[in-house]
Design brief:
Structural class: mainly beta
Number of strands: 41
Shape: globular
Distance between the termini: 31 Å
Largest sheet: 13 strands, antiparallel
Number of helices: 1
Helix content: under 10%
Oligomer: single chain
């Protein structure tokens, strides 16, 4: 089996720190590879994707995307193409725009000649800004959150050690990995004295400061500040004490420094610790891993090399990934004694997802993950409440309704399957399309199964991520939800004669489930 590393989730990418070989072809030391002495490094790798606003799913324009010495900016819809990347067993990408917390990912899918992959990124807007006199002590508290930074007087300095010019502006952004693991920069990998270690998060906080000239500021030598991190975890219980890690943007790894203790009373708890510099701080712990072993094939049953396989925790906030070897085999890490799911991708092609309940030993998946020709998948996630949301798809034939009672099939009609179902907060629920029918309308909606309304799907917040042949769209609940509107009609998917899919956003809350569109059971499918 190929070597693998734990790391961040998302579409079409694997996660390894620079210098770590994920088992994909063309890595350092391979004949003619980028690490071969005397051989010029190839620069023909390509990444495409879309950057979206983490809160509402809208595309973000003018995000700077960088990898090594090349860069580009996103288009009006958030899409981007970054070409001329130096091929390597691990490539670190950065995403930056004023007003947003920075993001980054590492991918192990760009080692081979002319390699390409898809990386879709959510970015969080800065949650709170405060301008103040740096000569006085200051508490910066994020409204509606327990996240906070407590600064002593005269604590900040410019890079050259001088005092700030004029007023200082602090920017804070809490990160809640339980609702979306992809919000976290990096790949859930901690730097150690040996191989990077897999870690799970219990919440994070991005903090940065600038003076009136826009110069970045850090804490003065010998000065510390107090940080409070709002907890966010898919785990059943929060540990009383966790290590603190900061994100190293140069390596793509998290570095342990200090610890934080759980304080306050639910629902107003927080992890509190002291720090000596500002960056993204994460309340994490390293966990013991087991391996999920399996294989990836295409729709014709042929094994697929170079596919990215990702695991995502259902009972913990963390992810792992690996790249399939020449025979299409993989070995992906996941947390020991946990619940997770595993899914594969290669460029625009996506596989079905498989639930795994893990114990103390490695586990093998029965049968191969299969990349589908339709290349359409839908992922539903939400918060701790409501406890149970359900994904529903109305299929190409009259009477086809894919949901937890009738989960469908990928091998026969409806060629749609609810791969992953969840009934205990957060999700995810994962729906895969193996084939599409000609000139039909598929309907996707979310049902609030739980009787508890609370803040509803809107305040949860719920999130629907649609991947359509490599193009990503993200949907947040629209306005108008009430306790009686338990159905969120998200979108329709319409096909043409060639089964090309057009997405029609609906974005309405309803008191009853939306009616079917297709009026017969004679759907004709594309292979």
């Amino acid at each position: 089996m190929p070597r693998a590393a734990a790391g961040g989730g998302g579409s079409g990418f694997a996660f390894l720190p620079p210098g770590q070989n994920g088992g994909d072809p063309g890595g350092p030391g391979d004949p003619g590879g980028p690490g071969d002495p005397g051989t010029p490094a190839r620069k023909d790798a390509k990444v495409t994707g879309r950057v979206t606003h983490a809160l509402d799913g809208a595309g973000i324009a003018q995000v700077k995307v960088t990898a090594g010495g090349v860069s580009t900016t996103t288009a009006d819809d958030g899409s981007y193409t970054l070409e001329g990347i130096t091929n390597g067993a691990s490539v670190l990408l950065g995403y930056e725009k004023s007003g947003f917390a920075p993001q980054s990912r590492a991918t192990a899918a760009l080692a081979a000649a002319e390699a390409s992959t898809v990386i879709n990124i959510p970015m969080l807007p800065v949650a709170f800004s405060d301008t103040f006199n740096p000569g006085a002590a200051r508490d910066l508290a994020v409204p509606g959150s327990t996240a906070m930074v407590r600064l002593p007087a005269n604590a900040l300095r410019r890079a050259d050690g001088s005092t700030p010019t004029g007023q200082v502006t602090g920017r804070l952004t809490p990160i809640a990995p339980a609702t979306n693991v992809n919000l976290m920069p990096g790949n859930y990998l901690a730097a150690t004295s040996g191989e990077p270690a897999a870690m799970e998060s219990f919440g994070a906080l991005d903090a940065s400061f600038v003076d009136a000239d826009g110069a970045p500021l850090q804490l003065a030598q010998g000065v510390s500040a107090t940080v409070r991190i709002a907890p966010s975890s898919r785990s059943a219980a929060l540990p009383p004490t966790v290590p603190l890690f900061f994100y190293n943007t140069a390596t793509g790894l998290w570095v342990e420094e200090g610890s934080a203790s759980l304080q306050g009373a639910a629902p107003n708890q927080y992890y509190e610790g002291t720090v000596t510099h500002f960056t993204t701080w994460n309340a994490d712990q390293i966990y013991n891993t087991v391996r999920v072993n399996g294989c990836v094939q295409n729709a014709a049953g042929q094994r697929v090399a170079g596919a990215v396989v990702a695991s995502e925790g259902k009972s913990y906030s963390g992810v792992g990934s690996a790249v399939t070897d020449a025979e299409g085999n993989f070995s992906v890490p996941a947390k020991r004694s946990s619940a997770a799911f595993v899914v594969a991708s290669k460029n625009a092609e996506l596989s079905n997802a498989v639930n795994v309940d893990l114990g103390e030993q490695d586990q093998s998946i029965e049968g191969c993950l299969t990349l589908t020709s339709a290349a359409v998948s839908i992922k539903l996630t939400w918060g701790e409440t409501p406890r149970d949301l359900d994904a529903h798809t109305l299929g190409a034939n009259l009477g086809e309704h894919i949901y937890y009672v009738s989960q469908g099939s990928l091998a026969t009609a409806p060629f749609v399957n609810l791969d992953v179902d969840d009934t205990s907060s957060f999700g995810p629920e994962y729906t895969t399309f193996a084939k599409l029918a000609r000139n039909r309308t598929y309907r996707f909606f979310v049902h609030r199964y739980s009787g508890d309304f609370g803040s509803g799907q809107t305040g949860s917040p719920a999130r629907v991520e649609l991947n359509n042949r490599g193009a990503q769209a993200v949907y947040a609940p629209p306005a108008g939800e009430t306790s009686s509107t338990r159905y969120w009609h998200v979108f329709d998917l319409r096909t043409d004669d060639s089964c090309n899919a057009t997405i029609v956003p609906i974005q309405k809350f309803l008191t009853e489930e939306p009616p079917p569109v297709n009026t017969d059971a004679n759907a004709q499918y594309c292979n």
